[in-house]
# Entry
Amino acid sequence: MTKLKKKICLLLAGGTWTTDKSKHVLVVNQAEDIPNWLDTMPELTILSEIATQLLYSEEEVLDLRAWEKAANFIVKNKGQYDGFVLVTKPEQIVIATVILNFLLQHLDISLVVTASQLSGLQTKEKKDMMQELITQQGGLGLRSNLINAVQVACETLPQPTIMFGSRLVAGVKAKLEHQQGKYILTSVDDNYLAKVDFGITFKQNLHYSNQTAQIFKSISQDILLIDDRSLFDFTAQCLNKYKAIFVFMHDEELSIKQRKSLQSLDKPVILYHMNYLQADPDFITLTACTPETALAKTMWAIANVKSDNLAKILKSNVIDEFINV
# Structure
């Protein structure tokens, strides 16, 4: 009996750069571009039944609302597919995946995020970078990334993940760095869900949540992001549009001047450091998670959690996002 192919939906939101046999660059900037773009990756239709949805063109600038749109599409259409693959700009894949983790908590369908090594429409300005990538690795990375992403999306995954290069990483553990002209994906705790060699090898004993899916529609962008080494000169007019203050900390605690400046605000203040912070009775301290996770968690919490419960939720391990906890 012939095994039925899984049906995978590709959500396209930038990061679609690939090359044809003649090494000409193809991108998806409108729906009419998709057939020729897919023709450069015939392996996809061998692996699964492929559907596509253009969310954003290659030329569009993506803001954080893009991931609300992606989450909304997944929720409305998940009954039609066996899994989803989101293709987006490489510099966006970590924050996109983490936001989707918080919007689609304990999702009962696989979601994999991937990208090309390049994005945007300035092909002339990126010609040298493009040629170097083609010379070094034979292409721009999307073809192999997408083939691997579709394969793992056909499996049952415990949470939204990133497939990039030879690694499958949980969004909340992912770190993407630009090294020697190309992006490299790693896990901050060296914990990989799967690795690609001659095939895809999944980690044994993956942890799956038994909790009921919780779906959220929005995140809040009304958060002032500051660095503890910048000046804290606030005005009421400046702060009116913000619902919270998020401080990236380099030191373990605030200076006296910084403390007084922040204490004068009638808004939640979140102090973030990836590794360690002194406990602070006046502010919310957030540690043991990646910067993208901390920010996404704050944006989700400000939009969906009552203010009197905010500190408790931010200190809770909502989606297994804490590292070494």
Summary: The chain has two domains: 7-214, 220-314. The chain has a mean pLDDT of 90.
